[in-house]
Amino acid sequence: MTVETLINTATPPLKHSDTVDFALGLLLEFRVRHLPVIDSDGRVIGVLSENRLLDSEGPEVCISELLAGEPVTISPKAHIFESTGVMIEHDLTTLPVVDADGYYLGLVQRQDLFEWYARMLGTQRPGAILTLEIDERDYALSQVIHVIEQNDAKVHSVSTEPVDQEKGTIRVTIKLNTVDAARVRHILEHNGYTVTAAYGEGDDTDLTERVQEFMRYLEV
């Protein structure tokens, strides 16, 4: 899935001739902490943060005076994972999308990315959640799914994260289509997997609420 599927054109960019006061008002209105700046031709010439604006010498300062360095941008053909990496690396709440000539096409908002990941991981679907710790050398996704699906369950989503890099262990989080994880957990443990946690439908509801609370936090 590419960035162009998440391009937001409703949140406007800043113009190089805008004032600090106007820019801060726009950030407040659209509930973001960063906005791209375009020149009179429509090319992205920078990205301004709320902190940079607040540190300026006054509300009537032209924002073009605050720009420094090359703007951080992304191509509409880049994968969404790549845009996520760029936003995390530069701690951005919005990321301008540009064509090959640097013309502004729109932006990707962090909130939209998190909502996309939430849908991809199936957080809104009913179902149990299992977490496993596995030696990375022994991890084979096809084997894990095979064990689960041989027992009349389906996998909605799978995600992995490192646990101990020195030991080479990873945590695998699996979202199932069934609300009762007991049988699947038993079978996985019988096949040598270490199941560190299991959550049923009640806990799944709690997880959904936590995701929604986290998304509300991101909008602050």
How would you portray this structure in words?
There is one protein chain. Helices cover 34% and strands 25% of the residues. By secondary structure, it is α+β, with helices and mostly antiparallel strands. The chain has two domains: 115 residues, CBS-domain; 97 residues, ACT domain (Alpha-Beta Plaits). The strands form three sheets. Strands 7-8-6-9 form a four-stranded antiparallel beta sheet. Helix 1 links the parallel strand 1 and strand 2. About 2% of the residues have low confidence.
Termini distance?
Answer: 27 Å
Spatial arrangement of strands, main beta sheet: 7-8-6-9
- The shape, in one word, is elongated
What's the total count of β strands? 9
| Mean of residue pLDDT values | 87
Tally of discrete structural domains: 2
CATH hierarchy, class of the largest domain? Alpha Beta
Radius of gyration: 22 Å
Low-confidence segments, given as residue ranges, are 201-205
- The name of the CATH superfamily of the largest domain reads CBS-domain
Q: What is the overall number of helices?
A: 7
**Sheet of most strands:** 4 strands, antiparallel
Q: Could you state the order of secondary-structure elements as H and E?
A: EHEEHHEEHEHEEHEH
Work out the strand percent.
25-35%
